Amino acid sequence: MFDTLSLTWEFRDDLLLGLRNTLLATAACMVSSVVFGLLLGVASTSHLKLLRGAIAIYVDVFRSIPLLVLLWLVYFGLPTLPGYPILVTPAAAVFIAFTLSYTTYQTEIFRAGIIAIDAGQKEAARSLGMRPAQVFRRIVMRQIVRIVLPPTMNQFTDILKSTAMAGTVAFAELFRTAQLIGTMTYDFMSAFLVVSVIYAVICLPLVYLTNYFDKRLRRGTAY
User: Fold this and answer.
1) Average pLDDT of the segment spanning 61-68
2) C-alpha–C-alpha distance, residues 197 and 183, integer Å
3) Which of 123, 153, 162, 187 matches a 20 to 30 Å C-alpha distance to 65?
4) Residue 84 banded pLDDT, cuts 50, 70, 90
5) Cα(73)–Cα(86) distance, rounded to whole angstroms?
6) Superfamily of domain 2-218, CATH level 4
7) Do the Cβ atoms of 10 and 177 come closer than 8 Å?
8) How far apart are CA 147 and CA 135, in angstroms?
9) CA dihedral for 136, 55, 110, 72, sign (positive or negative)
10) Are 209 and 150 in contact (CB under 8 A)?
């Protein structure tokens, strides 16, 4: 117990840096996946069959690739492209791989939210002369927020935990920091115990908050 506390204090700056990188990576990947997921989710409900098919292929393909494989493919694979090597930093590789992977899930979340809205409401709005953009902004967006909020919060928690994979491409996140501390001190148990507690302190409130909104939503009142 005392060894763990002393290790935490001794390497507090390194742990804080790893935590900062973890949170920044999580936030950046979450924002990008939500933005692209919203765009693709809306496009996936389009009347254009070719567009819907292209999005469906993207979602199916990238959901079938393990995130770790995709991360290594970007970081280690792109620089070895014959004739056109693409060098990427660890942070860029994490951003690209996580965005490609988690955008697929957000696309499905937004598509399900849009489909869940009664089509009669949209038809009534169009009959009143509203343009498609107005229908989406005033009718669709105001309702899908409460539908997609719980699963989107789950996505945030999942991204946060999955950043532990980023250490495999030399990104200085929290788990890699623990590995390096364990290598220097030969006390892997204390190092991993510290980061486990940090992850739990961050993720548990998010889980409880997600469950709270989900229960409110099931009762028909998200707020």
Assistant:
1) 96
2) 19
3) 153
4) confident
5) 12
6) MetI-like (1.10.3720.10)
7) no
8) 17
9) negative
10) no
Residue of 34, 13, 11 whose CA lies nearest to 99: 34
C-alpha to C-alpha distance for 195 and 201, rounded to whole angstroms: 10
Q: pLDDT, tens digit, for every residue of 12-48?
A: 888 999 999 999 999 999 999 999 999 999 899 888 8
DSSP per-residue codes, 36-79: HHHHHHHHTTSS-HHHHHHHHHHHHHHHSS-HHHHHHIIIIIGG
Q: How far apart are CA 186 and CA 171, in angstroms?
A: 21
Chain mean position to CA 121: 31
Is pLDDT larger for residue 200 or for residue 9? 200
8's tokens: 């935490």
CA distances from 176 to 77, 118, 168, 173 (A): 21, 47, 8, 6
Q: Distance between CA atoms of 128 and 15, rounded to whole angstroms?
A: 57
pLDDT at 125: 64
108 within 8 A of 41, measured Cβ to Cβ: yes
3-state secondary structure of 128: coil
* pLDDT, tens digit, 9 for 90 and up, residues 104-160: 999 999 998 888 776 666 667 667 667 666 666 666 777 787 888 889 999 999 999
Gyration radius of the chain over CA positions: 21
CA 99 → CA 36, 53, 139, 161, distances in Å? 8, 20, 28, 15
Domain ranges of the chain: 2-218
